[in-house]
Amino acid sequence: MPYPPPPEPYGTPYELAPAEEIVERTHPRIRVVRTINALIHLVCAVFALVLAVHIVLVLGGANSANGFARLISEWSSGVSLGLRNLFTPDSEGLRTFLNDGLAAVLWLIIGAILTDVITRIGAPGPRRVWYRRSYR
Q: Distance (Å, rounded) from C-alpha 59 to C-alpha 119?
């Protein structure tokens, strides 16, 4: 014989409240700063990647008459920041590694510094409150 269900001690069961949707909008300036920073990161990363591919092609002994190798060589000379003849060892591979490698690292550093400065200037933040003590 099954037992009857126990009576509800408090009357009607608890009903869930209708769900509320809370939308937190980001400040428009934050979106602009994020977009600008993303573009700067993209451009600097592409420049560093072109320099890295040029290093790999030179160290691998790629055919300089090939269209792709020529394109990468021209692009890398355009984004090398004037560092093509900074180091002049006898080996072409080492020379390319040092000069283009330094330029690639500098592009990444430039991108990081630019995005940090833009974020500090452009992003709204909490207002600073300066307290001044007066001794009377």
A: 38
Cβ contacts of 96 within 8 Å, gap of 6 or more: 54, 55, 58, 59
- pTM for the model stands at 0.71
What DSSP designation does 15 have?
Answer: -
Q: Greater confidence, 21 or 43? A: 43
Q: Is 69 exposed, middle or buried (0-12, 13-18, 19+ CB in 10 A)?
A: middle
Does the pLDDT of residue 23 top 80, yes or no?
no
Q: Which residues contact 24 (CB under 8 A, 6 or more apart)?
A: none
CA atoms within 13 A on the CB side of 50: 20
Convert the pLDDT of each residue in 85-130 to its tens digit: 999 999 999 999 999 999 999 999 999 999 999 998 888 776 555 5
Most distant CA pair in the chain, distance: 98
Joined together, the tokens standing for residue 92 give 């072409």
The larger pLDDT score, comparing residue 68 to residue 24, is at 68
Q: What is the CA radius of gyration of the chain?
A: 30
Q: Measure the CA–CA gap between 100 and 51, rounded to whole angstroms.
A: 6
